[in-house]
Amino acid sequence: MxxxxxxxxxxxxxxxxxxxxLGEVSSCKISDFMNCLDKSIKDSxxxxxxxxxxxxxxxxxxxxxxxxxxxxxxxxxxxxxxxxFATEQISSNDKEIVTxxxxxxxxxxxxxxx
Length: 114
Hints:
By secondary structure, the chain is α+β, with helices and mostly antiparallel strands. The protein has one domain (about 10-105): CATH 3.30.1330.20. Helices cover about 30% and strands about 35% of the residues. The protein has 4 helices and 4 strands, in the order H-E-H-H-E-H-E-E. The protein has helices spanning about 10-15, 35, 40-45, 65-75, and strands at about 20-30, 50-60, 80-90, 95-105. The chain has a 4-stranded mixed beta sheet. Helix 4 links the parallel strand 2 and strand 3. It is globular, with a radius of gyration of 15 Å.
């Protein structure tokens, strides 16, 4: 598997969305990815305008597993949300483990009625 790298322009693009920013850095079994995400991350996904996620996966893992994770994330997001993802190889003895760093931007707070 080859790495898909992030660069400064990717961060600049995602951070250009106005609103709150949320992030999480963690690792878990690939099959448990969506269950492992913090509740505030999952609750904010439909409100995010931009999502940047960097996956670290075992060198023997295929991009198909990452594609499945991206599909799961996409199901939670607003259809207009911008998604940028990257992958990198990690030195793990367990090829079922994924590490991830996720940044969600442009999260608007609900309007308060006056």
